[in-house]
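S.,

Sequence below, as promised.
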Amino acid sequence: MSKVIVSPLYDSDVFRMACRQFDQAADAINLPEAIRDRTKWPRRCLAVSLPIRRDDGSITVFEGYRVQHNLSTGPSKGGIRFHPHVTIGEVAALAMWMSWKCSLVGLPYGGAKGGVIVDPNQLSLNELERLSRRYMQELIPFIGPHVDVPAPDMGTNEKIMGWMVDTYSNHVGHLESAIVTGKPIALGGSQGRREATGAGVAYLVTKYLADLKIPVKKATVAIQGFGNVGSETAAALDHYGAKVIAISDHTAAFHSPKGINIKKALEYVRFNKVLKDFDGGDEITNEQLLTMKCTVLAPAALERVITPELAPKLQCRILAEAANGPTTNQADKIINDRGDIEVIPDVLCNSGGVIVSYFEWLQNLQNYYWGRDEVLTKLYAILDRAKDSVEYQRRKFKFSRRLAALTLGIARVAEAKESRGLFP
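The prediction came back faster than expected:
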Protein backbone atom coordinates (compact mmCIF):
# COMPACT_ATOMS: atom_id res chain seq x y z
CA MET A 1 0.00 0.00 0.00
CA SER A 2 1.46 3.35 -1.03
CA LYS A 3 1.46 6.26 1.36
CA VAL A 4 -0.32 9.35 0.09
CA ILE A 5 0.84 12.77 1.25
CA VAL A 6 -1.90 15.23 0.39
CA SER A 7 -0.58 18.77 0.16
CA PRO A 8 -2.86 21.80 0.47
CA LEU A 9 -0.65 23.48 -2.14
CA TYR A 10 -2.89 22.69 -5.10
CA ASP A 11 -6.21 22.73 -3.28
CA SER A 12 -8.85 24.38 -5.46
CA ASP A 13 -12.19 23.49 -7.05
CA VAL A 14 -10.61 22.83 -10.43
CA PHE A 15 -7.78 20.64 -9.04
CA ARG A 16 -10.25 18.63 -6.95
CA MET A 17 -12.30 18.20 -10.12
CA ALA A 18 -9.26 16.88 -12.04
CA CYS A 19 -8.40 14.53 -9.16
CA ARG A 20 -11.97 13.21 -9.02
CA GLN A 21 -11.84 12.46 -12.75
CA PHE A 22 -8.55 10.64 -12.22
CA ASP A 23 -9.93 8.61 -9.32
CA GLN A 24 -12.98 7.52 -11.33
CA ALA A 25 -10.80 6.47 -14.26
CA ALA A 26 -8.24 4.71 -12.04
CA ASP A 27 -11.03 2.79 -10.30
CA ALA A 28 -12.55 1.83 -13.66
CA ILE A 29 -9.30 0.17 -14.82
CA ASN A 30 -8.29 -1.12 -11.37
CA LEU A 31 -5.05 0.84 -11.39
CA PRO A 32 -2.82 -0.62 -8.64
CA GLU A 33 -2.31 1.57 -5.58
CA ALA A 34 1.47 1.37 -5.91
CA ILE A 35 1.40 3.15 -9.28
CA ARG A 36 -1.78 5.19 -8.78
CA ASP A 37 -0.37 7.96 -6.62
CA ARG A 38 2.79 8.29 -8.72
CA THR A 39 0.62 8.77 -11.80
CA LYS A 40 -1.76 11.24 -10.16
CA TRP A 41 0.33 13.85 -8.37
CA PRO A 42 2.38 16.55 -10.15
CA ARG A 43 6.09 15.81 -10.39
CA ARG A 44 7.32 19.36 -9.82
CA CYS A 45 6.03 22.89 -9.30
CA LEU A 46 7.69 26.28 -9.33
CA ALA A 47 6.46 29.62 -7.99
CA VAL A 48 8.33 32.76 -9.04
CA SER A 49 8.25 36.47 -8.23
CA LEU A 50 8.40 38.66 -11.31
CA PRO A 51 9.40 42.29 -10.64
CA ILE A 52 9.12 44.55 -13.68
CA ARG A 53 9.64 48.25 -14.22
CA ARG A 54 6.46 49.98 -15.37
CA ASP A 55 6.42 52.71 -17.98
CA ASP A 56 6.02 55.35 -15.27
CA GLY A 57 9.20 54.15 -13.52
CA SER A 58 7.45 52.30 -10.67
CA ILE A 59 8.10 48.61 -9.89
CA THR A 60 5.35 45.98 -9.76
CA VAL A 61 5.95 42.40 -8.59
CA PHE A 62 3.78 39.76 -10.27
CA GLU A 63 3.52 36.09 -9.27
CA GLY A 64 3.94 33.21 -11.69
CA TYR A 65 3.84 29.42 -11.65
CA ARG A 66 4.95 26.40 -13.67
CA VAL A 67 3.74 22.89 -12.87
CA GLN A 68 5.29 19.83 -14.55
CA HIS A 69 2.92 16.96 -13.98
CA ASN A 70 4.65 14.09 -15.75
CA LEU A 71 8.19 13.67 -17.11
CA SER A 72 8.12 9.88 -17.57
CA THR A 73 7.02 9.82 -21.21
CA GLY A 74 9.16 12.66 -22.58
CA PRO A 75 9.57 16.39 -22.00
CA SER A 76 6.56 18.02 -20.38
CA LYS A 77 4.38 20.20 -22.59
CA GLY A 78 1.83 22.87 -21.88
CA GLY A 79 0.78 26.46 -22.29
CA ILE A 80 1.44 29.64 -20.34
CA ARG A 81 -1.64 31.54 -19.18
CA PHE A 82 -1.68 35.27 -18.36
CA HIS A 83 -4.90 35.89 -16.43
CA PRO A 84 -5.87 37.81 -13.27
CA HIS A 85 -7.42 34.75 -11.63
CA VAL A 86 -4.63 32.21 -12.18
CA THR A 87 -3.96 29.95 -9.17
CA ILE A 88 -1.40 27.21 -8.70
CA GLY A 89 -4.27 24.74 -8.25
CA GLU A 90 -5.71 25.68 -11.63
CA VAL A 91 -2.27 25.38 -13.24
CA ALA A 92 -1.77 21.94 -11.65
CA ALA A 93 -5.16 20.72 -12.92
CA LEU A 94 -4.41 21.94 -16.43
CA ALA A 95 -1.01 20.19 -16.30
CA MET A 96 -2.70 16.96 -15.24
CA TRP A 97 -5.21 17.14 -18.09
CA MET A 98 -2.37 17.82 -20.50
CA SER A 99 -0.69 14.58 -19.40
CA TRP A 100 -3.78 12.54 -20.29
CA LYS A 101 -4.30 14.49 -23.52
CA CYS A 102 -0.76 13.91 -24.81
CA SER A 103 -0.94 10.26 -23.83
CA LEU A 104 -4.35 9.75 -25.43
CA VAL A 105 -3.25 11.04 -28.84
CA GLY A 106 0.10 9.24 -28.69
CA LEU A 107 2.55 12.12 -28.23
CA PRO A 108 5.91 11.55 -26.46
CA TYR A 109 5.17 14.25 -23.90
CA GLY A 110 4.13 14.64 -20.30
CA GLY A 111 1.81 17.41 -19.16
CA ALA A 112 2.79 20.85 -17.87
CA LYS A 113 1.20 24.28 -17.51
CA GLY A 114 2.27 27.76 -16.53
CA GLY A 115 0.56 30.93 -15.45
CA VAL A 116 1.07 34.50 -14.30
CA ILE A 117 -1.45 36.41 -12.21
CA VAL A 118 -1.94 39.44 -14.44
CA ASP A 119 -4.48 41.07 -16.72
CA PRO A 120 -2.40 41.52 -19.88
CA ASN A 121 -4.88 44.13 -21.15
CA GLN A 122 -3.79 46.40 -18.30
CA LEU A 123 -0.14 46.38 -19.44
CA SER A 124 1.45 48.40 -22.22
CA LEU A 125 3.21 46.45 -24.95
CA ASN A 126 6.59 47.29 -23.39
CA GLU A 127 5.43 46.19 -19.93
CA LEU A 128 4.05 42.95 -21.38
CA GLU A 129 7.40 42.26 -23.03
CA ARG A 130 9.29 42.86 -19.77
CA LEU A 131 6.95 40.53 -17.88
CA SER A 132 7.16 37.80 -20.55
CA ARG A 133 10.95 37.93 -20.64
CA ARG A 134 11.24 37.95 -16.86
CA TYR A 135 8.96 34.92 -16.56
CA MET A 136 11.01 33.00 -19.11
CA GLN A 137 14.24 34.01 -17.38
CA GLU A 138 12.98 32.58 -14.09
CA LEU A 139 12.00 29.30 -15.82
CA ILE A 140 15.38 28.73 -17.52
CA PRO A 141 16.81 26.29 -14.91
CA PHE A 142 13.70 24.10 -15.21
CA ILE A 143 12.92 24.00 -18.93
CA GLY A 144 14.56 23.03 -22.22
CA PRO A 145 13.71 21.41 -25.57
CA HIS A 146 14.06 17.96 -23.95
CA VAL A 147 12.80 18.94 -20.48
CA ASP A 148 9.74 21.19 -20.70
CA VAL A 149 8.42 23.03 -23.77
CA PRO A 150 5.95 25.89 -23.10
CA ALA A 151 3.35 27.26 -25.53
CA PRO A 152 0.73 30.03 -25.64
CA ASP A 153 -2.53 29.77 -23.73
CA MET A 154 -5.17 32.23 -22.58
CA GLY A 155 -3.77 35.76 -22.52
CA THR A 156 -0.58 34.89 -24.41
CA ASN A 157 0.18 34.65 -28.14
CA GLU A 158 2.89 34.09 -30.73
CA LYS A 159 4.42 37.53 -30.11
CA ILE A 160 4.97 36.63 -26.44
CA MET A 161 6.42 33.27 -27.47
CA GLY A 162 8.85 35.14 -29.74
CA TRP A 163 10.10 37.22 -26.79
CA MET A 164 10.52 34.03 -24.78
CA VAL A 165 12.50 32.35 -27.57
CA ASP A 166 14.81 35.37 -27.66
CA THR A 167 15.25 35.41 -23.87
CA TYR A 168 16.18 31.72 -23.72
CA SER A 169 18.35 31.93 -26.84
CA ASN A 170 20.34 34.83 -25.40
CA HIS A 171 20.97 32.71 -22.30
CA VAL A 172 22.30 29.67 -24.21
CA GLY A 173 24.15 31.72 -26.81
CA HIS A 174 22.37 30.53 -29.95
CA LEU A 175 18.86 30.44 -31.42
CA GLU A 176 16.91 27.63 -29.74
CA SER A 177 13.62 27.52 -31.64
CA ALA A 178 12.48 24.29 -29.97
CA ILE A 179 12.24 25.89 -26.51
CA VAL A 180 8.61 26.95 -27.10
CA THR A 181 5.89 26.24 -29.66
CA GLY A 182 3.20 28.54 -31.01
CA LYS A 183 5.80 31.12 -32.01
CA PRO A 184 6.02 33.28 -35.17
CA ILE A 185 6.78 31.51 -38.45
CA ALA A 186 9.94 33.63 -38.78
CA LEU A 187 11.34 32.04 -35.61
CA GLY A 188 10.49 28.45 -36.53
CA GLY A 189 6.76 28.40 -35.91
CA SER A 190 4.68 25.82 -37.73
CA GLN A 191 2.22 26.45 -40.50
CA GLY A 192 -1.26 25.72 -39.15
CA ARG A 193 -0.36 26.14 -35.46
CA ARG A 194 -2.44 29.26 -34.82
CA GLU A 195 -5.67 27.61 -36.00
CA ALA A 196 -4.80 24.07 -34.88
CA THR A 197 -6.95 23.79 -31.73
CA GLY A 198 -10.04 25.30 -33.33
CA ALA A 199 -9.51 23.37 -36.55
CA GLY A 200 -9.28 20.14 -34.53
CA VAL A 201 -12.46 20.94 -32.59
CA ALA A 202 -14.34 21.65 -35.83
CA TYR A 203 -13.00 18.50 -37.52
CA LEU A 204 -14.13 16.27 -34.64
CA VAL A 205 -17.52 17.99 -34.57
CA THR A 206 -18.02 17.11 -38.26
CA LYS A 207 -17.04 13.50 -37.55
CA TYR A 208 -19.53 13.16 -34.69
CA LEU A 209 -22.23 14.91 -36.73
CA ALA A 210 -21.65 12.30 -39.43
CA ASP A 211 -21.97 9.53 -36.82
CA LEU A 212 -25.33 11.02 -35.82
CA LYS A 213 -26.29 11.36 -39.50
CA ILE A 214 -26.76 15.12 -39.14
CA PRO A 215 -25.63 17.07 -42.23
CA VAL A 216 -23.10 19.76 -41.34
CA LYS A 217 -25.00 22.33 -43.38
CA LYS A 218 -28.08 21.78 -41.19
CA ALA A 219 -26.18 22.12 -37.91
CA THR A 220 -26.46 25.20 -35.70
CA VAL A 221 -23.57 26.14 -33.40
CA ALA A 222 -23.21 28.25 -30.23
CA ILE A 223 -19.67 29.10 -29.10
CA GLN A 224 -18.84 30.48 -25.67
CA GLY A 225 -15.49 32.25 -25.84
CA PHE A 226 -14.13 34.08 -28.88
CA GLY A 227 -10.42 34.02 -28.20
CA ASN A 228 -8.02 32.02 -30.35
CA VAL A 229 -9.78 28.67 -29.86
CA GLY A 230 -13.36 29.90 -30.07
CA SER A 231 -12.80 32.17 -33.07
CA GLU A 232 -10.87 29.52 -35.01
CA THR A 233 -13.55 26.94 -34.19
CA ALA A 234 -16.20 29.36 -35.46
CA ALA A 235 -14.24 30.08 -38.64
CA ALA A 236 -13.65 26.40 -39.38
CA LEU A 237 -17.27 25.34 -38.75
CA ASP A 238 -18.49 28.28 -40.83
CA HIS A 239 -16.18 27.08 -43.62
CA TYR A 240 -17.66 23.56 -43.35
CA GLY A 241 -21.11 25.08 -43.84
CA ALA A 242 -22.51 24.98 -40.31
CA LYS A 243 -24.52 27.97 -39.09
CA VAL A 244 -22.92 29.72 -36.10
CA ILE A 245 -25.89 31.33 -34.35
CA ALA A 246 -24.25 32.60 -31.12
CA ILE A 247 -20.83 33.78 -29.96
CA SER A 248 -19.54 35.42 -26.79
CA ASP A 249 -16.50 36.61 -24.90
CA HIS A 250 -16.06 38.00 -21.39
CA THR A 251 -17.59 41.34 -22.45
CA ALA A 252 -20.75 40.34 -24.32
CA ALA A 253 -22.73 37.56 -26.02
CA PHE A 254 -24.67 37.79 -29.30
CA HIS A 255 -27.29 35.66 -31.06
CA SER A 256 -28.61 35.67 -34.61
CA PRO A 257 -31.03 32.91 -35.74
CA LYS A 258 -30.00 33.53 -39.36
CA GLY A 259 -26.34 32.99 -38.50
CA ILE A 260 -23.62 35.38 -37.41
CA ASN A 261 -21.26 36.74 -40.06
CA ILE A 262 -18.07 35.19 -38.69
CA LYS A 263 -15.74 37.11 -40.99
CA LYS A 264 -17.31 40.34 -39.77
CA ALA A 265 -16.97 39.22 -36.12
CA LEU A 266 -13.31 38.29 -36.61
CA GLU A 267 -12.59 41.65 -38.23
CA TYR A 268 -14.42 43.47 -35.42
CA VAL A 269 -12.41 41.69 -32.72
CA ARG A 270 -9.19 42.27 -34.64
CA PHE A 271 -9.66 46.03 -34.33
CA ASN A 272 -11.62 46.30 -31.05
CA LYS A 273 -10.01 43.39 -29.13
CA VAL A 274 -13.41 42.36 -27.65
CA LEU A 275 -16.98 41.70 -28.85
CA LYS A 276 -18.56 44.48 -26.79
CA ASP A 277 -20.89 46.62 -28.98
CA PHE A 278 -20.66 44.22 -31.94
CA ASP A 279 -23.69 44.85 -34.17
CA GLY A 280 -23.93 41.44 -35.82
CA GLY A 281 -26.62 40.00 -33.56
CA ASP A 282 -28.94 40.54 -30.61
CA GLU A 283 -27.19 40.80 -27.26
CA ILE A 284 -27.99 37.95 -24.85
CA THR A 285 -26.67 36.68 -21.52
CA ASN A 286 -23.98 34.04 -21.14
CA GLU A 287 -26.54 31.63 -19.64
CA GLN A 288 -28.87 32.16 -22.58
CA LEU A 289 -26.04 31.22 -24.94
CA LEU A 290 -25.14 28.07 -23.01
CA THR A 291 -28.75 26.88 -22.77
CA MET A 292 -30.06 27.85 -26.22
CA LYS A 293 -31.38 25.26 -28.63
CA CYS A 294 -28.59 24.31 -31.04
CA THR A 295 -26.96 21.27 -32.61
CA VAL A 296 -23.49 21.96 -31.21
CA LEU A 297 -22.50 23.85 -28.05
CA ALA A 298 -18.78 24.59 -27.81
CA PRO A 299 -17.57 26.09 -24.51
CA ALA A 300 -14.20 27.58 -25.48
CA ALA A 301 -13.34 29.79 -22.52
CA LEU A 302 -12.64 28.97 -18.87
CA GLU A 303 -13.11 25.87 -16.73
CA ARG A 304 -16.30 24.84 -14.88
CA VAL A 305 -18.86 26.84 -16.88
CA ILE A 306 -21.29 23.92 -17.33
CA THR A 307 -22.59 23.65 -13.76
CA PRO A 308 -25.14 21.30 -12.13
CA GLU A 309 -27.65 24.15 -12.39
CA LEU A 310 -27.09 24.58 -16.14
CA ALA A 311 -26.74 20.92 -17.13
CA PRO A 312 -30.49 20.11 -17.06
CA LYS A 313 -31.17 23.17 -19.23
CA LEU A 314 -28.78 22.33 -22.09
CA GLN A 315 -30.52 21.99 -25.46
CA CYS A 316 -27.60 20.92 -27.64
CA ARG A 317 -27.11 17.56 -29.37
CA ILE A 318 -23.29 17.68 -29.14
CA LEU A 319 -21.26 19.28 -26.34
CA ALA A 320 -17.82 19.93 -27.84
CA GLU A 321 -15.41 20.83 -25.03
CA ALA A 322 -13.08 23.26 -26.78
CA ALA A 323 -11.92 24.57 -23.37
CA ASN A 324 -10.19 22.54 -20.67
CA GLY A 325 -12.47 21.30 -17.90
CA PRO A 326 -15.59 23.27 -18.87
CA THR A 327 -17.99 20.72 -17.34
CA THR A 328 -18.02 20.08 -13.60
CA ASN A 329 -18.14 16.50 -12.34
CA GLN A 330 -21.71 16.88 -11.05
CA ALA A 331 -22.85 18.44 -14.33
CA ASP A 332 -21.14 15.63 -16.25
CA LYS A 333 -23.15 13.04 -14.30
CA ILE A 334 -26.39 14.88 -15.04
CA ILE A 335 -25.55 14.98 -18.75
CA ASN A 336 -24.65 11.27 -18.77
CA ASP A 337 -27.90 10.40 -16.99
CA ARG A 338 -29.87 12.44 -19.53
CA GLY A 339 -28.41 10.37 -22.36
CA ASP A 340 -29.46 12.78 -25.12
CA ILE A 341 -26.21 14.74 -25.49
CA GLU A 342 -23.02 13.45 -27.10
CA VAL A 343 -20.02 14.82 -25.23
CA ILE A 344 -16.69 15.23 -27.02
CA PRO A 345 -14.44 15.42 -23.92
CA ASP A 346 -11.77 18.09 -23.65
CA VAL A 347 -8.79 15.71 -23.65
CA LEU A 348 -9.87 14.62 -27.14
CA CYS A 349 -11.78 17.65 -28.43
CA ASN A 350 -9.11 20.33 -28.03
CA SER A 351 -6.03 18.16 -28.55
CA GLY A 352 -5.33 19.67 -31.98
CA GLY A 353 -3.26 22.44 -30.42
CA VAL A 354 -0.78 20.18 -28.69
CA ILE A 355 -0.62 17.84 -31.70
CA VAL A 356 0.50 20.66 -34.00
CA SER A 357 2.78 21.96 -31.23
CA TYR A 358 4.41 18.53 -31.37
CA PHE A 359 4.77 18.94 -35.15
CA GLU A 360 6.36 22.36 -34.61
CA TRP A 361 8.82 20.92 -32.07
CA LEU A 362 9.72 18.10 -34.47
CA GLN A 363 10.30 20.56 -37.29
CA ASN A 364 12.54 22.69 -35.04
CA LEU A 365 14.62 19.69 -33.97
CA GLN A 366 15.07 18.58 -37.59
CA ASN A 367 15.29 22.09 -39.04
CA TYR A 368 12.99 20.83 -41.78
CA TYR A 369 9.60 22.45 -42.29
CA TRP A 370 6.22 21.32 -43.67
CA GLY A 371 3.48 23.14 -45.56
CA ARG A 372 0.09 23.93 -44.02
CA ASP A 373 -1.76 21.20 -45.94
CA GLU A 374 0.74 18.58 -44.76
CA VAL A 375 0.39 19.78 -41.15
CA LEU A 376 -3.41 19.64 -41.21
CA THR A 377 -3.47 16.27 -43.00
CA LYS A 378 -1.22 14.79 -40.31
CA LEU A 379 -3.34 16.45 -37.59
CA TYR A 380 -6.58 14.96 -38.88
CA ALA A 381 -5.00 11.50 -39.18
CA ILE A 382 -4.00 11.56 -35.50
CA LEU A 383 -7.44 12.85 -34.46
CA ASP A 384 -9.08 10.03 -36.44
CA ARG A 385 -6.96 7.42 -34.66
CA ALA A 386 -7.63 8.96 -31.26
CA LYS A 387 -11.39 9.12 -31.91
CA ASP A 388 -11.43 5.50 -33.05
CA SER A 389 -9.55 4.35 -29.93
CA VAL A 390 -11.92 6.27 -27.65
CA GLU A 391 -15.00 4.85 -29.36
CA TYR A 392 -13.58 1.31 -29.16
CA GLN A 393 -12.83 1.74 -25.45
CA ARG A 394 -16.32 3.15 -24.89
CA ARG A 395 -18.06 0.24 -26.59
CA LYS A 396 -15.82 -2.42 -25.08
CA PHE A 397 -16.31 -1.37 -21.46
CA LYS A 398 -19.60 0.54 -21.77
CA PHE A 399 -17.88 3.66 -20.45
CA SER A 400 -18.94 7.24 -21.06
CA ARG A 401 -16.87 8.90 -23.75
CA ARG A 402 -15.02 10.97 -21.14
CA LEU A 403 -14.21 7.94 -19.03
CA ALA A 404 -13.04 6.06 -22.14
CA ALA A 405 -10.67 8.90 -23.09
CA LEU A 406 -9.34 9.35 -19.56
CA THR A 407 -8.75 5.64 -18.96
CA LEU A 408 -6.76 5.36 -22.18
CA GLY A 409 -4.59 8.38 -21.36
CA ILE A 410 -4.05 7.49 -17.70
CA ALA A 411 -3.29 3.82 -18.38
CA ARG A 412 -0.56 4.71 -20.87
CA VAL A 413 1.13 7.11 -18.44
CA ALA A 414 0.90 4.54 -15.63
CA GLU A 415 2.37 1.86 -17.91
CA ALA A 416 5.33 4.12 -18.76
CA LYS A 417 6.00 4.83 -15.07
CA GLU A 418 5.77 1.15 -14.19
CA SER A 419 8.07 0.18 -17.07
CA ARG A 420 10.71 2.67 -15.91
CA GLY A 421 10.51 1.46 -12.33
CA LEU A 422 11.19 3.60 -9.26
CA PHE A 423 14.58 5.26 -9.02
CA PRO A 424 16.04 4.59 -5.53
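Residues 372-397 form the longest helix (26 residues).

Coffee later?
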